[in-house]
C-alpha cells in the first residue's frame, strides 16, 4: 500500500510537473502571440499614418493646383475687363470728341475769345450733366 501510495504521489508530482511545463509553454506561446499582435498593430498604424500623410499631401497639391487655376482665370477675367473698360473709354472719348466738334461746327466763333470760352464752358457743363 505504501508503494502504491508512493507511486500515486510520484505520478501526481509528475502530472503536476507536466502541467507546470505545459502552462509555461502556453505562457510563452501567448507572449509570442501578443508580441506578434503588437508588431502587426504597429505596422498597421504606421501604414495608416503613411497613407493619411500621402492623402494629405495629395489634397494639398490638389488645392494648390486649383488655387493656381483660379488665379489664372481671375487674371484672365481682369485682363478682359481691362480691355472692355479701355474700349469703353475709347468709345466715350470718340463720342465726346465728335460731340464737341459738332458743337463747335454749329457755332460761329469768328475770333471772339469770350464766345469761344463760353462755348467750351457750356459744352463742359453739358458733358458733365450727361454723365
What is the mean predicted local confidence, pLDDT?
88
Individual helix count: 2
Beta strand %: under 5%
Catalogue the unreliable spans: none
The termini sit apart by: 132 Å
Report the structural category.
Answer: mainly alpha
Explain what the structure shows:
This protein is an all-alpha fold and 131 residues long. The chain is 94% helix and 0% strand. The protein has two helices and no strands. The longest helix has 105 residues, at 2-106. The chain is rod-shaped.
In short:
By secondary structure, the chain is an all-alpha fold. Helices cover 94% and strands 0% of the residues.
Give the helix/strand layout.
Layout: H1 2-106, H2 113-130
What keywords describe this structure?
131 residues; mainly alpha; rod-shaped
Amino acid at each position: 500500500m505504501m508503494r502504491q501510495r508512493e507511486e500515486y504521489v510520484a505520478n501526481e508530482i509528475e502530472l503536476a510537473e507536466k502541467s507546470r511545463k505545459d502552462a509555461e509553454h502556453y505562457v510563452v506561446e501567448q507572449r509570442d502571440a501578443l508580441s506578434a499582435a503588437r508588431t502587426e498593430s504597429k505596422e498597421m498604424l504606421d501604414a495608416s499614418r503613411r497613407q493619411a500623410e500621402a492623402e494629405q499631401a495629395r489634397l494639398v497639391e490638389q488645392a494648390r493646383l486649383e488655387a493656381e487655376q483660379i488665379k489664372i482665370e481671375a487674371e484672365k477675367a481682369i485682363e478682359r475687363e481691362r480691355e472692355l473698360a479701355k474700349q469703353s473709354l475709347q468709345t466715350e472719348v470718340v463720342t465726346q470728341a465728335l460731340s464737341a466738334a459738332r458743337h463747335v461746327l454749329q457755332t460761329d466763333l469768328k475770333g471772339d475769345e469770350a464766345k469761344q470760352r463760353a462755348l467750351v464752358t457750356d459744352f463742359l457743363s453739358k458733358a458733365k450733366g450727361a454723365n
